[in-house]
Design a protein that fits this description.
By secondary structure, the protein is of the alpha+beta class. It folds into seven domains: 24-189, no CATH class; 191-227; 231-265, no CATH class; 273-308, no CATH class; 311-450 and 638-726, no CATH class; 454-601, no CATH class; 728-968, no CATH class. 46% of the residues lie in helices and 10% in strands. It has 34 helices and 20 strands. The strands form six sheets. A seven-stranded mixed β-sheet has the order 6-11-10-7-12-14-13, sandwiched between helices. The longest helix has 38 residues, at 192-229. The N and C termini lie far apart (98 Å). GO terms for molecular function: DNA binding.
Length: 968
């Protein structure tokens, strides 16, 4: 059977009351390919109806003449047509093709319909319509005439559903085929009473809704009247309310957000915040303004504002202007400053400075002078120039300019570069007279050598040649290397590696490597692993002394524990350490790289002696003039200027040496920003733990003078650092242990997250280590080996490894106990006997030489957590299971943590699951870190082997065999 065009659409004939007027409904019948058919009909007296759609199928075509002739004669329905032909002359279209559907366009219009329900004549008319239509559809087309396809749409009311109409419908279905006849859904017949009841219900609903509407309208009018009669909040009250809700917003930002103002005059602090955000990321700053609609100064506003500040070679005049504006809010004690100057490498190239309208370059060095508050947190660059050394005249001119705006220079700090040492000589400064006279007031200005720089130089002498104490004891890196040989995977010396002893080139500028080598932990490890070695004890005492001296010269917090407290908090003990350091350094001699003893004092030694004398004199002067009890000594160092250089390098991405013009532009962006110290360079040499804001970013801020300055301006200290320490006196033991530095908390896991690097393989790694050890030892070390029994050395090495592992497990168990100290306080037992106001009560000094003491007892200042015996047993058992599963590396790498946890739960059933989870996670990171460390040291040894090996010629074969036995 050929396809039939059949369409069905829902009926919209709704019951209408008899007394209503005729209502015309327009409805469009959808056809395929976008064609529509429109029918207009009357719904008067039609309560419910069935709708039938009839379309001829196959070859049952109609001509235009036949359609109009037969359908136009009906006395009830009057149809008019507008049609298109479906084919050309002589062509018979037999199928409902797609083209036929596109060409089909028929419009029915029922112009007149008057049907009386129950009238027999109306029934006869409807039946006649059906009969005539079906009969006429039997006619055959005449030759040459066009064929037409059409569709009947019949509306049959329920009142006509009698036997006769059903027979006619069945006949129609048989004639046109049943597939082409569809009826719409039958609407349930409703009599007049039911219809009226439904209408009454709806009328009641409408009345209720109208009542609710009137009630709402009256309430709305009452509220409007109340709003009109109530006085509006003033602009000031609105601002206060918003400020309480949004304290981070300024008044200008609130005015813009509340549409109080369309344009505002940004304050200096708001401009400074904008500079800081744009310094970190200009694209991010634009995103905040244009996408998130934050009320911030535009980029153009920042550009126009920055043009007012000019930075060029020479004295930065604008810095003195903003410092003079800030001086009015400071007391005389807060205006005491430290002057620092240093040089930074620049790229040698010619460049045009648009701001200054000049050509700059080529320059190789940039000289920067900065000032820093001694008792108040601020810093500001005041001088920038290129290829210019600091001279006495320039130094005096800077001091005079600062004094003109009522800032008094009381100290000068620099490193031990050649130009700076020459300046010391010109100023007649030495470690016995470490000060110059103020050019105006004639007061003493103390000269300091940068303490971190001195620590690096001392480390270099120690690892390159060695040191000779006044009693003839030679100190070198040999016993440190022995510690590294016996260092195990689980070790308290997890930070120490061969890299600390083989630093070369730019790596020697890293302060962290030097401070980790000269640390309290290393000193205690030497004492613990060499209990009967007198030289080892002298080395441990020296390392401990250097560590304490550096802590005193680099204090950050007013309430630091032990020697990290400000200088003056425990003056007697601190002076004892400084005096001992002074005497040790003054009487000490150094060996150069060739092993030659240097009779004279080195620059680093003179710098240490000068800094010790200067800090004592400066504290005494400040106490006499301003009644300050102590000084935060990190402000007499040069770390803030090193951090400033790191920001300049970091601003220029991978370029470590920017050009002079880039340096000037970056300096302007930095000093205009509000404390951009957090955006430091990733490879910064120094990390400023207590960053100040630049004066140009904060000079409009007026501070209260009501508070008295006691000591080192404690109210202006770093909130994070001071807050952690101030709570020590009143907090519980658990809180104190959490706030005191616990080396195993953050650094413990952070140090185990390095990626594994692919390094060259070496099958002879052990022999490489042996040859390297033989290469670096000198004659004094060789003589020491002659006195050792080889078997005894091997036994001692094994004992040190076992002790190191046990100490490491105790450290790990203490860290686990510290993590769960609040939920399970029974996991730990804390020691607080070392936490005292006096450093002399520190108990580790009394425990020196006691082998039975635990590692935590020896190194703890009171904050480390000592695990209970039960936790120690758990950790030992879990460690044995871990070694059985993974051995020396990793047995499996997929789902490693889940598998390890399942094995630990099966083998260690008495251990809580939370302890197992923490141990598994930490232990996997520790193994990765240890494997990375091994590979890095192996690569380092390979690089060392490429150096000249002249020293091997002086070592006998017998001594080589002894060294082989010790190493293996």
């Amino acid at each position: 059977m050929e396809d039939t065009l059949c369409y069905k659409y829902p009926s919209i004939m709704n019951p209408i009351e008899n007394d209503k007027k005729d209502t015309i409904h327009n409805l469009r019948v959808p056809f395929e390919h976008g064609w529509t058919r429109e029918l207009v009909y009357s719904s008067n007296n039609m309560k419910n109806a069935e709708v039938y759609y009839v379309c001829p199928a196959g070859n049952r075509m109609r001509t235009k003449r036949e359609v109009f002739q037969n359908l136009g004669n009906l006395n009830i329905w009057n149809f008019s047509f507008a049609k298109r032909p479906l084919g050309c002359n002589g062509e018979i279209i037999r199928t409902a093709s797609a083209r036929g559907c596109r060409d089909l366009e028929t419009a029915f219009k029922m112009q007149k319909a008057s049907v009386d329900v129950g009238n027999s004549s109306a029934q006869q008319s409807i039946c006649s319509l059906i009969t005539e239509a079906t009969d006429n559809s039997m006619n055959i087309r005449s030759p040459g005439e066009k064929w037409w396809r059409f569709m009947f749409v019949l509306y049959v009311s329920n009142c006509f559903h009698d036997l006769r109409i059903n027979e006619e419908i069945d006949f129609l279905c048989c004639f046109f085929c049943k597939e082409c006849l569809y009826s719409s859904e039958n609407y349930t017949h409703m009599d007049e009473d039911q219809l009226r009841q439904e209408i009454a219900k709806k009328d009641d609903l409408i009345k209720n809704l109208r009542i609710c509407l009137l009630r709402n309208e009256s309430e709305m009018k009452a509220l409007q009247t109340q709003i009109k009669t109530k006085p509006n909040l003033s602009h000031e009250e609105t601002l206060k309310t918003i400020e309480l809700l949004f304290p981070m917003l300024s008044k200008n930002q609130i005015n813009i957000m509340t549409n109080q103002k369309k344009r505002v005059n940004w304050t200096c602090e708001e401009i400074s915040t904008g500079f800081a955000l744009s310094f970190f990321s200009r694209r991010g700053y634009c995103y905040l303004i244009h996408k998130l609609h934050y009320p911030l100064p535009s980029i153009r506003t920042l550009q126009l504002w920055s043009q007012k500040m000019t930075i060029g070679p020479g004295i930065i005049e604008d810095s003195f202007v903003v410092m003079a504006a800030m001086r009015s809010s400071l007391t005389e004690g807060e205006s005491q400053v430290i002057l620092a100057f240093d040089e930074m490498k620049c790229k040698e190239r010619y460049e045009v400075n648009k701001t200054l309208d000049c050509v700059m370059g080529p320059h190789s060095q940039m000289q920067v002078a900065m000032v820093r508050g001694l008792f108040y947190k601020f810093k500001q660059p005041i001088f920038v120039d290129f290829d210019m050394k600091m001279s006495v005249e320039l130094l005096n001119s800077l001091i005079k300019r600062l004094y003109a705006i009522k800032f008094n220079v009381v100290g000068i700090v620099n490193d031990n570069g050649g130009g700076n040492v020459g300046l010391w000589t010109k100023c007649n400064v030495n470690y016995e007279r470490p000060y110059i006279s103020h050019p105006i007031t004639k007061d003493k200005i103390f000269m300091f050598s940068d303490a971190p720089h001195l620590l690096k130089l001392l480390r270099n002498w120690f690892i390159d040649g060695g040191l000779l104490l006044s009693d003839g004891t030679e100190l070198n890196q040999y016993r440190i290397r022995q510690l590294l040989e016996s260092n195990t995977e689980i070790s308290p010396l997890y930070k120490l590696s061969l890299h600390h002893l083989e630093v070369k080139g730019a790596e020697r500028q890293c302060v962290r490597l030097a401070s980790e080598l000269f640390s309290h932990t290393v000193a205690e490890s030497v004492r613990r692993n060499f209990p009967k070695d007198a030289v080892a004890h002298k080395l441990a005492d020296f390392i401990e002394l250097v560590n304490n001296w550096f802590d005193i010269m680099n204090s950050y917090t007013p309430n630091g524990i032990a020697y990290k407290a400000p200088y003056g908090k425990d003056l007697e003990e601190q002076n004892r350490v400084l005096d001992e350091m002074y005497w040790t350094i003054k009487t000490m001699k150094c060996f150069n790289k060739k092993g030659e003893l240097q009779e004279s004092l080195q620059i680093s030694q003179k710098g240490i002696l000068m800094s010790i004398t200067s800090i004592k004199g400066l504290r005494k002067e400040m106490e006499e003039k301003f009644k300050f009890r102590f000084i935060l000594t990190h402000r007499t160092n040069q770390d803030f200027e090193e951090n400033f250089f790191s920001q300049i390098r970091g601003r220029n991405g991978p370029i470590d040496h920017p050009s002079p013009v880039e340096c000037l532009y970056t300096i302007k962006a930095i000093i205009l920003g509000k404390n951009p110290g957090i955006g430091r360079h990733l490879h910064s040499n120094t990390i400023e733990q207590d960053p100040e804001e630049y004066v140009s970013a904060t000079f409009m801020r007026h501070l209260s003078r009501d508070e008295n300055i006691d000591g080192i301006c404690e109210r202006n200290g770093d909130q994070h650092e001071i807050g952690n320490i101030e709570l020590l006196e009143n907090d519980s033991d658990d809180d104190i242990r959490e706030k005191i530095a616990n080396d195993m908390t953050e650094d413990f896991l952070a140090d185990y997250t390095n990626d594994i690097k692919v390094l060259p393989n070496d099958s002879n790694g052990l022999e490489t280590c042996i040859r390297l050890e033989i290469e670096i030892i000198d004659e004094a070390q060789t003589e020491f080996l002659d006195d050792l029994d080889p078997e005894m050395a091997i036994d001692e090495t094994a004992a040190r490894k076992a002790r190191s592992t046990e100490d490491g497990l105790e450290y790990l168990a203490g860290w686990i106990a510290w993590k769960f100290k609040k939920k399970h306080p029974e996991f730990s037992k804390t020691r607080r006997e070392t936490l005292s106001s006096h450093i002399t009560d520190h108990t580790y000094a009394k425990r020196i030489g006691i082998e039975s003491s635990s590692w935590i007892d020896r190194v703890s200042y009171g904050g480390l957590t000592k695990p209970s015996n039960e936790v120690m047993q758990w950790v030992r058992r879990m460690e044995n299971v871990f070694i059985e599963i993974h051995g020396d590396e990793f047995n499996n790498r997929m789902n490693i943590r889940k598998l390890l946890i399942s094995e630990l739960e099966a083998e260690c059933k008495e251990v809580p699951s939370l302890v197992i989870n923490l141990y598994a996670r930490s232990r996997i990171y520790m193994r990765c870190k240890f494997l990375n460390k091994q590979r890095e040291e192996k690569a380092l040894l390979l690089r060392v082997l490429k150096r000249p090996r002249d020293s091997l010629s002086d070592i006998s074969r017998a001594k080589i065999k002894k060294m082989q036995k010790i190493v293996t």
